[in-house]
Amino acid sequence: MTPLSVLDLSFVSADSTPAQALHDTLALARHVDGLGYRRYWLAEHHALPNVASPAPEIMIGQIAAATRNLRVGSGGIMLPNHAPLMVAERFRVLEALFPGRIDLGLGRAPGTDGLTARALRRREAPGEGGDDFLDRLQELLFWDGGFPEGHPFARITASPADVPLPPIFLLGSSDYSARLAAEIGCGFGFAQHFSGMPAEPPMLDYRNRFQPTRLGTQPHAILAVAAICAATDAEAERLAASARLATLRRERGEYRPLPSLAEALAYPYSDLERMQIARGRDRLHVGGPETLRAQLADIIRRTQADELMIVSAIPDQAARHESYALLAQVWGLGATSQAA
């Protein structure tokens, strides 16, 4: 059976706070650690009122320390926001503390708006134009594999020196990262939960183009999907009301906290808004256990995904925990002992 994993954006709900969202992330990680999920990834976003996840490397350490079985990683670190040496050293530290349990997922978007991107000092020189993601990625790989002779950084040692970088995944919502991941031989993650394009072309393109390198000998394609599970199809549809309203607002540029279920159910949708929601139904997978299992199995068949990563935007934390538990049960994941 294809492994299942979790992508957590630390959603802030209308009835909660950003600080509570971080504690909810820790609680969910402890919960799924005993359900048989493979990975738990944290995203990087800045200055957004609906998510509380600006520093995934900090949360990775906290979650790895609070769990026993999960691989924990970034989904992802937005490389243009960081000096490659800092990324290398932070993830070497994590790998040293939790050997064999850390993943390094990398993205090329800023994870925020243009003004905040400037505040993050994405460019080394003010006003420098162009996309320097490839330069930063190459430098990051050099910190792990060694710089060419004569490179000015060749004399610098990234610490801790006796620890390699964890496995690298390139993340994206288009075909660019798929082709690049295949070329350098690393893992690939496609964000179907917010991409505007079908998942099949980039997922299959990555697999067909994959070239073995020191980073990896076999392709590994992870598909991130939005999914909500409940005891019945009707209850799952009811719970999905919050996610649907949040998506509608996000498409209008409104990054508000995740609405409560009561607010979402009472929202007076216009005919145009109902059409927008209908068009986006293929990006949110909803149903009772058997219904959702059939939907996800079909996605795996069409995309040849090696792994599914589930993101569930449910403001009620008990219902969110139950969603992951029901999906784990119907998927046949092997339950393990709960983390201490």
Would you give an account of this structure?
By secondary structure, the protein is α/β, with parallel strands linked by helices. 42% of the residues lie in helices and 15% in strands. It has an eight-stranded parallel barrel, surrounded by eight helices. α1 crosses α2 (56-66) and α3 (84-97) packs across α5.
For this entry, give a set of tags.
340 residues, alpha/beta, eight-stranded parallel β-barrel, 12 helices, globular
Assign the structural class, choosing from mainly alpha, mainly beta, alpha/beta, alpha+beta, or little secondary structure. Answer: alpha/beta
Report the strand count.
9
The parts where pLDDT drops under 50 for at least 5 residues are none
Largest sheet: 8 strands, parallel, barrel
Distance between the termini: 27 Å
Q: How many whole angstroms does the radius of gyration measure? A: 20 Å
Net shape: globular
Q: What's the number of helices? A: 12
- One letter per element, helices H and strands E, the order comes to EHEHEHEHHEHEHEHHHEHEH
Strands of the biggest beta sheet: in what spatial order? Answer: 1-2-3-4-5-6-7-9
Helix content: 40-55%
Strand percentage = 15-25%
Mean pLDDT: 93
In short:
With 340 residues, the chain is of the alpha/beta class.
